[in-house]
Structure formats: structure tokens, C-alpha cells
Write a structure and sequence with these properties.
Elements (H helix, E strand, L loop, with lengths): L1 H20 L11 H18 L2 E6 L6 E6 L7 E7 L19 E3 L8 E3 L7 H16 L6 E7 L9 H7 L8 E4 L3 E2 L6 E3 L1 E2 L1 E10 L5 E2 L10 H10 L22 H7 L6 H8 L12 H6 L3 E9 L9 E2 L2 E10 L5 H14 L6 E10 L2 E2 L5 H14 L4 E3 L7 H9 L3 E3 L3 E2 L10 E3 H22 L1
Parallel strand pairs: 3-6, 3-7, 7-19, 8-20, 9-18
Antiparallel strand pairs: 1-2, 2-6, 4-5, 5-21, 10-17, 11-15, 11-16, 12-14, 13-15
Helix pairs in contact: 1-3, 1-12, 2-3, 3-12, 4-11, 10-12
Bound molecules: ligand BES and manganese (II) ion (2 copies).
């Protein structure tokens, strides 16, 4: 029944997603404000068509939150579906093989049956839209077994700043039993998995100022501190020879896993040769004493995300720059607290500034790490749903990325989340040529109704 409905509506499901992908909803870039708002209206219209009620585009201080619901019986459990309609910037455009907002289908080694290439195809429009289509399917076939609420935001990629207040101010409206999210990865199409944790985030921008103006690098060079040289050295000093982060106190709150937990984490299939081959690197890197799965799943990191300053135009300009800048992210794990780590970074980074320069650290958005239960009714329902459609029990894994709002769902709404993602790490999220497997898309639409079915049954 589920399969038939998908088969009959396959092309329409794809065309609708293509229309969604054509709208460049880049939340980080003000020039796209109109497009982001247009995307919210698009999602609203599709929710209405699918059969949702009380659908509204809720204004916030930033981009709106699309809400909709179908309450079939207040006594039945309620699933709150969360997703985001905004996407990352697509620049640098020249690295895309086809334009980011003109979706096309191509096959890849990982997706021999085809993948949709477009910004947001996997993160998160494609994954979010599976829920709208799965809902349509349940409505049309009269099989929605419990209540559902949708909350689709437009600011996830810029830190979900306005979703927190929205949740706090709408506790009654958002009352539910669990949050269901498809915005993470699984291991492979033939190896389903469910993330049971996400890392948190501290994000800062640093500015190093030397002389009051750009100088002739011959006339002054050698006698005046060069902010770029200084910044490079300061950033390099943040890791020691074992690639341990050197900020005092950085690891104090890190929850160490038991040996047993580490053994279980490493049971997930992972091929280091494939990993290296996919990235065209001759070796992996990182903190001594940990495997790749541990490095990305349960250990904190510090990475420079961007660095600039001085002359980067054509040819050579002999200049000793006045300023240098960098953006730095730290991925956090339980029980590190974002604001504390940001504070530790700031104090340390300012303290290591050599004489001759001024250093300023500006904190950006952050987010707390989360772990989700594997023994809840919702997790078990998700596992059973995936087992039904993939023919294999999903493996619990830790996701290295962040969805900061998940911690807030727990803290403010008292809701646990299930991270039933259908993307793959190799789908190039945030990178040029982002894509999402056609099979992943349709499998997701097929799996979600089973989640609802099992969740309703197992909640009894
Ligand atoms: N969907 C991702 C997070 C993700 C991806 C988690 C893959 C696990 C596996 C989300 O859209 C994202 O990119 N989050 C940002 C954080 C945000 C504050 C900008 C991130 O992780 O960088
Ligand atoms: Mn996402
Ligand atoms: Mn993202």
C-alpha cells in the first residue's frame, strides 16, 4: 500500500521537491531575504495541500517558522516533526558541476540509481520534504495513526536564534510526545543507522590588529609585528603535538566513555581506506589515541573555518597588513557548555597575543551537545521502521554535526528527539555539488509512515 502510493506519485514527489530546491533560501545572506520568505510560503502551501490544519507562517524577529498540525484525537500521542527550509550559501559557484539552484539528476559511485544535485537537496529540504509527502500518503490512505505537528524553520544554518523564543512562547501549541527529525546521516543505504548524539558548537571570530595602516613590507618589514604571521602562529599553537587542544580547561567537562561504550561505538562499519579515497587524502589526522569514529563522534574539536587579511588580489603587492581575521569553530561533546568554552577560548586567545598586536575575540552563535535515548518508545519505533524498509536493524551512531535546537527541545519543551536521518556523509552537505540519493528520498518517504504506525502501536 505504502509502496504503491509512492510508485504512483513518484514523479510528482520529485517535481515538487525540485520546485522547492529552485528557491535559493540562503539564510546567511541578506540578499536572499525575499527568497527565504518565499520558501516559507511554499512549505506552507504544500502542508495545506497535504492535509495539515492550522497552517501558518509564524513571523519572528528573523525568518518565519512554518507550523501546521493534524490532530485526529487529543488522547492519542503526538509527533512533532522538525526540519529546516533554509540552506547554506552555495559559493564558490565555479566549483559546482551544475548550478546549485537548478536541480539535476546524475549517478555517482555511491548512488548508481541517481542523486539529486542541488543546494539543500540533502540538508535539509529533501529530508524535510519526505515528511510532508509521508504525511500526504497517510492522509490520503486514511492511515495516520496519531497526531502530528510540523515546525519547519528558516534559520537553522545561522544558529536557530529565533526558534528558541518561539518554542518558549508556544509551549502549549508545541505539546507533543517526541520530536522526529530527518537532518542527519546514516552509514549507507545497505547499512541504516540512527544518530544518538550530536555535537555542540562554539563559534568565534578573531581579529588581530598590528600597525594602524597597511605598510610597505620593505620599509617596515622585520621591525613591526605582522598580524597574519602572528595569527597563523596563534592558531597553530591551539593544538599540541598529539593534536590535543591546548586551551586550559577545554577538556575538563568532557564526558569520557567507558571502554564498553567505545567498543560499541567502533562496531559500526567504517572503512578507513574508503574514507581516505573519498576525500583524496593520504592519511587521516587528529587527536592521538582515538579512532576516526571517536574523533568525529565523541571528541571535541577546534577548526579554523576561514582566514583572511592582507593582499589577495592578482599579482604581488608588497604589504605588511594592518589586520588579520579568522573564524574558528569548536565542536563540543557532553558535558561541555557552549558559553563556557567560548569564554575559555577568549581568555586563552587574548592571553597568548604577543606584544605588538591587539587581539579581539567576538563570539558568534553556539549550541549544546545532546545524546538521545536508545530505549525510548520513539527510538524503538524508528529502529523497527527502518528495519521494515531496509531489511536490517539500524546501528546506533554518533553524528559529528550540530543541530543546536535539539538541546533546547529537551530543556524547554521536555521533549526527546529521534534523529532518523536518511542522508549520507558523502552527500556533500555544505559543499559544492551537494546531492541526495533518489533511493534515499523514496526510502525516507516509505519509512516515515512505519515510524508513525509503530510509534502509535507501541505507545499504547
Ligand atoms: N543537518 C546539519 C547537521 C548535521 C549534519 C548533523 C550531518 C549530523 C550529520 C545542520 O543543518 C547543520 O549544518 N548544522 C550546523 C550548525 C549550525 C549552528 C550552523 C553545523 O553542524 O555546522
Ligand atoms: Mn540540516
Ligand atoms: Mn546544514
Amino acid at each position: 500500500m505504502i509502496k504503491e502510493y509512492i510508485e504512483q506519485n513518484k514523479d510528482r514527489f520529485l517535481n515538487e521537491l525540485f520546485d522547492l530546491l529552485r528557491i535559493p533560501s540562503i539564510s546567511a545572506d541578506k540578499d536572499y531575504a525575499e527568497q527565504v520568505n518565499k520558501t516559507a510560503n511554499f512549505v506552507r502551501d504544500r502542508l495545506i495541500e497535504a492535509g495539515a490544519e492550522k497552517v501558518e507562517v509564524c513571523a519572528t524577529a528573523g525568518y518565519p517558522i512554518v507550523y501546521g498540525e493534524k490532530i485526529i484525537d487529543p488522547k492519542l500521542p503526538t509527533v512533532l516533526v522538525y526540519g529546516h527550509y533554509d540552506v547554506q550559501p552555495a559559493v564558490p559557484l565555479e566549483l559546482w558541476d551544475t548550478p546549485p539552484f537548478e536541480p539535476t539528476i546524475r549517478t555517482t559511485e555511491v548512488h548508481p540509481k541517481g542523486a539529486i544535485f542541488a543546494r539543500g537537496s540533502c540538508d535539509d529540504k529533501g529530508q524535510m520534504y519526505m515528511h510532508v509527502k509521508a504525511f500526504e500518503l497517510m492522509m490520503k490512505s486514511n492511515t495516520l495513526p496519531c497526531n502530528v505537528k510540523f515546525m519547519i524553520e528558516g534559520e537553522e544554518e545561522v544558529g536557530s536564534t529565533n526558534l528558541g523564543p518561539f518554542c518558549i512562547n508556544n509551549k502549549e501549541k508545541l505539546k507533543a510526545d517526541v520530536v522526529l527529525i530527518s537532518d542527519t546521516s546514516m552509514i549507507a543505504l545497505d547499512t541504516p543507522s540512527i544518530d544518538t548524539g550530536l555535537r555542540g558548537l562554539s563559534y568565534v571570530e578573531v581579529e588581530v590588529t598590528g600597525p594602524n595602516r597597511d605598510l610597505h613590507s620593505g620599509v617596515y618589514g622585520g621591525a613591526v609585528a605582522n598580524p597574519i604571521n602572528v595569527l597563523a602562529k596563534m592558531i597553530a599553537s591551539l593544538h599540541d603535538e598529539n593534536n590535543h587542544i591546548t586551551i586550559p580547561g577545554f577538556y575538563d567537562e568532557v564526558l569520557e566513555l567507558t571502554n564498553q561504550e567505545r567498543v560499541e561505538l567502533n562496531l559500526a562499519p567504517f572503512n578507513i581506506e574508503d574514507f581516505k579515497k573519498d576525500l583524496n587524502i593520504d592519511d587521516v589526522w587528529g587527536e592521538k589515541g582515538f579512532t576516526v569514529l571517536e574523533k568525529t563522534g565523541i571528541r571535541p574539536t577546534l577548526d579554523c573555518n576561514g582566514i583572511w587579511g592582507g593582499y589577495i588580489g592578482e599579482g604581488a603587492k608588497t604589504v605588511l597588513p594592518s589586520k588579520a581575521f579568522a573564524k574558528i569553530s569548536m565542536r563540543l561533546v557532553p558535558n561541555q557548555a557552549s558559553h563556557k568554552i567560548t569564554e575559555l577560548f577568549k581568555n586563552h586567545f587574548e592571553s597568548i597575543a604577543p606584544a605588538g598586536v591587539k587581539v579581539e575575540v567576538k563570539p558568534h552563535h553556539g549550541g549544546e551537545p545532546v545524546v538521545t535515548p536508545t530505549d525510548s518508545v520513539a527510538y524503538l519505533a524508528a529502529a523497527k521502521a527502518m528495519e521494515t524498509t531496509f531489511g536490517k536493524k539500524p546501528i546506533p551512531t554518533r553524528g559529528g554535526g550540530s543541530i543546536p535546537i535539539v538541546a533546547l527541545f529537551e530543556r524547554e519543551l521536555g521533549l526527546k528527539s529521534v534523529l532518523m536521518g536518511f542522508g549520507l556523509d558523502s552527500d556533500a552537505l555544505h559543499s559544492p555539488n551537494e546531492h541526495y540519493g533518489l533511493e534515499n528520498y523514496y526510502k525516507g518517504i516509505e519509512t516515515i509512515p512505519y515510524f508513525f504506525k509503530y510509534f502509535a502501536e507501541m505507545s499504547k
